[in-house]
Amino acid sequence: MEAYPVNLTGPSLWRIGGSMNTTKPSAGSRQLLTAGLVCLLLTPLVTMAADIVRMMAERSGALVGMVSGTGADQTAAMFATIEANLGTYQLASWLALAAAIVAIPGVAAVRTLTADRSPRWSMAALITGICLVIGEFVHLMGYYAWNQILVAFPDREAAIAVSDLTQQNVFGLVVFSPYLIGVLLFWPFAAVALWRSRAIPIWAFVLVLVGGLVMTVAGSSYLTSPVWAIATTVGLAPALVTQLRSARTAANNSAMAATEVSTSSSVVR
């Protein structure tokens, strides 16, 4: 797959369209982009790990997908299992935090790779990526941390009542909406932007879409979460491969240029 020149030095994160800046990027810029793409691939894998550990702690997540419900009895059962497996639930919380952190450079890497070749889809991926990151941190506090706080309540009935009121609060649902927007839209938008920028092939683009569709339709489970994570990671991996090849080519060209300059200098002397 042909690698296109990538602007690693130039336009504002918010620029839409415009001519491509083919300024030769520095080795440091290429290394940062490579690191960002590694983080992009790590994000679904760490998210999957957090999801599976969470389901282990909550004892939920059937193979065909978990159907969420509401009600005091279900909340009480969930709190009881979290309390009994608090260490596992806390591990899931830390993994979810790690996924939110590595998503930040991952979103920036997508923007860097696609801003010139697919400006509109790149901007769509950036906006939904910001929603993903913001939503992840809201989710960390509103779900993982909040459940741990409620489990620690001495009055379990009061904790259940507070939990039910929280789920019914309109403002809370609005604040939570960026998480849903980011989770549902960032990955397909990023795949479209990368495909249109020729950073990934068509099969990889389709694989990301199929993985996202499986998760959206079937819900999170011990089966669908790994399917989504693996499909997304494998689908986006060609972007990293392309970047590594481009960096290797640039390094070889720089070495050849340095050799030629050295040789020319010796001849002149």
Automatic annotation (TrEMBL):
Listed transmembrane segments: 32-50, 62-82, 94-113, 125-146, 170-195, 202-221, 227-244
Superkingdom of this protein's organism: Bacteria
Keyword field: Membrane, Transmembrane, Transmembrane helix
Protein name: DUF4386 family protein
Organism, scientific name: Microlunatus phosphovorus (strain ATCC 700054 / DSM 10555 / JCM 9379 / NBRC 101784 / NCIMB 13414 / VKM Ac-1990 / NM-1)
